[in-house]
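ok, trying the design again with the full structure, not the truncated one.
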């Protein structure tokens, strides 16, 4: 097996370079759009728009796969695929912060963030198959930072920290690693018997599904069970290619869930959300999180009010199977953690009577007179 820090060129080197040259000297252009000039080959851009895109992409580089472009409505400037992937002049506004969740101050190594008891986020890559215009890690994604040199140190840290039982591989995107690098990381984590749960957070199946190779699925098969959390924001992102990747993850023994960010002009509509979550369930993906937008610098034009988010959740709860409902959560700025922010159906309490609002709007009462619990007073729960 190849060791971390080494890289073979060829088969899977699309992650890092725009042009690959094989041994015979044949050059292949890789399927990404990285600048305004390339964009102008696909879209009609006037001078002002070109200047805005140039200015925004100097701060936060462009990267869009040709695949993701293919699902865009190029004639519609408000297309949700376009809004997520093409820079805009709104990114030049200064509000927001580059590290809205204060991840740096929770970092135990340069690539291991630990906020919660028992689990931590391992940033295994700083590369993605697309530079999403709302990314809350845009401070380093696609900017040449290399987490690779911290991977061994972090694996030792995890091995020596008895509190860690769950590791969330994130980045960037873990599927930007070559399959054998991912295999090495998963093999190492699996060898630590205390680690019960490994998650991989990824957007590759959505923005560049053809970037996953058979070896990636084999790695999942050989390391199962692995929880795959796919970041997906709009029903138009559910394509046959996406569905095929989900099927391959599931066939390999992966447990597939989704996370979605509530984004203005992309999915801030109850019907769009209903369509997204219904279709995810149809593909075999359990919607897990709906995130309130983090206050990211240069992306504040995507912010939706919590009031609107709660209305959307109320609509979804009324119209969707419970299986299709995600948790709507806010990651509290500054790194205080995720908290649920759903609609409050429990309206008031009078003595033992608790008043609830039902889906029809009618009020019902539950008499909360359960007997005293059977706690034995061992106080184990007080020790945490
Ligand atoms: S895939 Fe995730 S980490 Fe990468 S740019 Fe998009 S939101 Fe950021």
């Amino acid at each position: 097996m190849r060791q971390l820090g080494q890289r073979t060129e060829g088969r899977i080197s699309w992650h890092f370079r725009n042009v690959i040259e094989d041994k015979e000297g044949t050059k292949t252009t890789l399927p990404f759009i990285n600048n305004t000039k390339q964009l102008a080959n696909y879209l009609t851009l006037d001078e002002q728009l070109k200047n805005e895109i140039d200015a925004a992409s100097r701060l936060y580089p462009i990267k869009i796969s040709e695949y993701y472009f293919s699902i865009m409505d190029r004639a519609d400037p408000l297309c949700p695929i376009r809004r997520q992937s093409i820079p805009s002049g709104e990114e030049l506004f200064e509000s927001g912060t580059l590290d809205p969740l204060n991840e740096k101050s929770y970092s135990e190594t340069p690539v291991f963030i630990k906020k919660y008891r028992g689990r931590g986020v391992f940033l295994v890559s700083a590369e993605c198959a697309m530079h999403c215009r709302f990314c809350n890690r845009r401070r380093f994604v696609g900017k040449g930072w290399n987490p690779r040199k911290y991977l061994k140190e972090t694996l030792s840290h995890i091995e020596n920290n008895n509190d860690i039982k769950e590791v969330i591989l994130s980045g960037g995107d873990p599927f930007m690693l070559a399959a054998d690098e991912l295999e090495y990381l998963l093999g190492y984590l699996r060898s630590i018997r205390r680690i019960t749960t490994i998650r991989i957070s990824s957007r590759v199946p959505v923005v560049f599904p053809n970037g996953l190779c058979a070896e990636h699925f084999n790695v999942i098969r050989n390391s199962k069970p692995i929880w795959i959390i796919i970041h997906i924001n709009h029903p138009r992102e559910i394509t046959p290619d996406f569905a095929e990747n989900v099927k391959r993850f599931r066939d390999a023994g992966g447990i597939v869930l989704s996370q979605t960010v509530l984004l203005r002009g992309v999915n801030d509509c109850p019907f769009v959300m209903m369509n997204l979550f219904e279709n995810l369930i149809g593909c075999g993906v359990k919607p897990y999180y709906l995130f309130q937008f983090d206050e990211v610098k240069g992306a504040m034009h995507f912010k939706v009010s919590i009031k609107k988010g709660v209305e959307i959740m109320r609509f979804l709860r009324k119209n969707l199977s419970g299986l299709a409902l995600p948790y709507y959560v806010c990651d509290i700025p500054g790194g205080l953690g995720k908290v649920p922010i759903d609609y409050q159906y429990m309206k008031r309490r009078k003595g033992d009577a608790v008043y609830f609002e039902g889906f029809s709007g009618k009020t019902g009462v539950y008499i909360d007179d359960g007997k005293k619990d059977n706690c034995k007073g061992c106080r184990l729960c007080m020790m945490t």
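Keeping the full-length input from now on. Residues 270-283 form the longest helix (14 residues).
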